[in-house]
């Protein structure tokens, strides 16, 4: 039943990333129709989505620790599919931003539910591979968004508008949202079929009841005691997220502007690279960190994050300067291979830092930082460099050449600085945690 659950969550995550990433193919027509700059488009791709995702994730995380997790995910899935569909009707920047915010709120249910369910479905020694297999879905979804979007754009050709039954005439880029939005609703029966497991303390011992959920004061005390461990883990993962989300958002446009590739072709090629490189990177990161953990390295998750950032750095510096599109895709693929490790080490790292009854909220706090900064600022960083530093959309390659290696270096530094406090926190998180804030906060060392 546990592996069936992983399969269902895998499928749901694919739909999530398809809805999230398809817009990166549509930058040029959206800019033209709505009169936007690169910076404004980046705000819709990143900030509008990510802030809603991050803010909504906090109360969702608390609900995940108390209510039915399949029911919460079902509601979120329905919301983000409907809001993706609504993106096909927008006529202005505010309308597009509002619809994308709705997608973000719906998708905010995903990771807190997944982190909590996998933590209860699998014992600690099997969580790494379970998270790794699940995390492949993010890169499959990103790649499929680009491949499917490219296929739709290719099929529609150069037509500026399409006449649809009932709906009427819509712009070609809007058709992409109208087609991909409703498809995710097919996964609703699968989510409702998931088993709600008993909540565990340490992956093997059931909690007595929801009354054991720590009070807010206990949670804040725990975070304050271990702030350096959480800060370094969140910072390293978030900086790598900025690198991945920022480069992925602009890669099709980079290939079009720099090498003259048609956007449908650029999306197809980059989508295939993302699926292969991201999937291999996630699995490799999970296996390597799992083996290190079994070998006694309790800081394995954060250590692998730092090593991955160091390995990604030379490729992040090289691909924007490549002489041909094939070399650029190869360099970007190598970078994605290493950055993909955070999809395993990030979520499992939070699991190891937090006691069982804090995992839903801890995942939400992690996502608040991860998406509130990583997803929102990643695309915007490169857009701001392009618009306001280099002042020419044709200089997007320069923005990538400056920003990408800087983010990789900063991620590596954050990870290695935090190894010692991370080890201390992981050791203590295995102890029981008091359920109520009325207990002595000074004793909260779990």
Note down, in words, how this protein is organized.
This protein is mainly alpha-helical. It has 18 helices and 2 strands. The chain has helices spanning 2-21, 27-34, 38-64, 69-86, 93-107, 110-121, 124-156, 172-180, 188-192, 216-225, 227-259, 263-294, 300-318, 325-339, 342-353, 359-390, 396-417, 419-428, and strands at 161-164, 168-171. Strands 1-2 form a two-stranded antiparallel sheet. Helix 11 packs antiparallel against helix 12. The longest helix is centred in the N-terminal third of the chain and has 33 residues, at 124-156. The two termini are 30 Å apart. Mean pLDDT is 84; it is low at 202-211 and 431-446.
Structural class: mainly alpha
SSE string: HHHHHHHEEHHHHHHHHHHH
Give a short account of the largest sheet: 2 strands, antiparallel
Q: Give me the Rg, rounded.
A: 21 Å
Which strand-content bin applies to the residues? under 5%
Global mean pLDDT: 84
Number of strands: 2
Low-confidence stretches: 202-211, 431-446
Name the helicity range: over 70%
Q: How do the strands of the widest beta sheet line up side by side? A: 1-2
The shape, in one word, is: globular
Annotation field: number of helices: 18
Q: Give the termini separation.
A: 30 Å
């Amino acid at each position: 039943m546990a592996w069936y659950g992983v399969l269902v969550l895998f499928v749901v995550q694919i739909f999530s990333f398809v809805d999230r990433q398809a817009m990166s193919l549509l930058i040029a027509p959206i800019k033209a129709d709505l009169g936007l700059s690169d910076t404004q488009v980046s705000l819709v791709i990143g900030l509008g989505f990510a802030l809603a995702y991050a803010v909504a994730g906090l109360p969702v995380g608390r609900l995940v620790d108390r209510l039915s997790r399949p029911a919460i995910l079902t509601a979120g899935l329905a919301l983000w599919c409907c809001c993706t569909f609504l993106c096909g009707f927008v006529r202005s920047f505010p309308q597009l931003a509002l619809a994308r915010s709705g997608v973000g709120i719906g998708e905010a249910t995903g990771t807190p539910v997944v982190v909590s369910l996998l933590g209860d479905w699998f014992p600690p020694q099997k969580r790494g591979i379970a998270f790794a297999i699940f995390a492949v879905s993010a890169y499959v979804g990103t790649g499929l968004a680009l491949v499917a979007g490219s296929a739709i754009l290719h099929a529609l050709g150069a037509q500026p508008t399409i006449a649809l039954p009932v709906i009427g005439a819509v712009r070609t880029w809007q058709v992409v949202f109208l087609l991909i939005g409703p498809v995710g609703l097919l996964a609703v029966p699968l989510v409702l079929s998931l088993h709600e497991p008993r909540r565990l303390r340490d992956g093997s011992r059931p909690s007595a009841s929801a009354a054991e959920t720590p009070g807010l004061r206990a949670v804040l005390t725990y975070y304050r005691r271990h702030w350096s461990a959480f800060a370094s883990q969140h910072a390293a993962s978030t900086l790598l997220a900025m690198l991945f989300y920022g480069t992925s958002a602009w890669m099709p446009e980079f290939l079009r502007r720099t090498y003259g590739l048609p956007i449908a072709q650029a999306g197809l090629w980059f989508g295939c690279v993302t699926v292969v490189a991201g999937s291999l990177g996630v699995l490799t990161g999970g296996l390597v960190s799992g083996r290190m953990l079994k070998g006694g390295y309790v800081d394995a998750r954060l250590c692998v994050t730092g090593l991955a950032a160091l390995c990604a750095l030379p490729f992040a510096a090289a691909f924007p300067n490549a002489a041909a599109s094939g070399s650029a895709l190869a360099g970007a693929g190598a970078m994605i291979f290493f950055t993909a490790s955070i999809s395993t080490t990030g979520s499992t790292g939070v699991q190891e830092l937090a006691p069982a009854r804090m995992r839903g909220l801890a995942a939400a706090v992690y996502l608040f930082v991860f998406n509130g900064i990583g997803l929102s600022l990643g695309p915007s960083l490169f857009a701001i460099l392009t618009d306001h530093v280099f002042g020419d959309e044709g200089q997007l390659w320069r923005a990538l050449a400056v920003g990408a290696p800087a983010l990789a270096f900063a991620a590596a530094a954050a990870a290695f600085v935090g190894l010692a406090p991370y080890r201390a926190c992981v050791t203590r998180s295995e102890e029981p945690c008091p359920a109520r804030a009325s207990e002595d906060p000074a004793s909260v060392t779990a």
